[in-house]
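OP here, attaching both records as promised.
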Amino acid sequence: MKIAVASSNWKDVDHFGKTQGFMIYEFDEENMNFIEKRESPKIKGEKHQWQKSLSVIEDCEIVICAQAGLKGKFGLKNAGIKLIEDEGKIEDVLDRFVKHYNFMKKPLF
């Protein structure tokens, strides 16, 4: 599955509609591999720029961001992209995602 992580500085997870870019990863249920950086320039001070972010990650199944506004959440849902809100360093957030994914895959009994 292809995962987009919102980040303006390529180190920390950022707000979906305000981010200047996305780090794109491929997760095969075992390994998380970096694919590419994608820029998503925003105009400082302009509101509701979430569509610019969405257009950059339309081929992804999951987006991880610190936060997303109501319109952005609605747009992601309509595009079939799952939203995960978490914050911190990208590597820490991805590590938590993998641990949670693996935990949820374990059988209950």
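Record two, same layout:
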Amino acid sequence: MQIACEAYWVGGGLVGVALGAALPAPIKGLEFALCALFTVLTLDAFRSRREIPSVLLAGPSVAAALVLTPGVAMFTALLLFVALLLARHAVTARRPDPERPAPDAVTARRPDPEAADA
């Protein structure tokens, strides 16, 4: 399954490169497609209440990248965003999740009423 997913990912990328190279001239506005894709993905994440902290981490990443490295802002913003997501994961992994039961609650057994009578 992993090989199929990787082949699909790499194959799709190569088909995209081939189709892009086959275009006769630059198409005005085509470079905006990637920006529009990320905008839609951001709005989708924002609608999901669980992903609001991730959306809030993306803003400072972009702002810092535009100030620090305006020439390669997208790359820097993505690196900062990944670093902030990893830090968020490290912090939230240590905190107990109120929606998930404690390990003792899952493994604890109720006393068997028939065994108590015996």
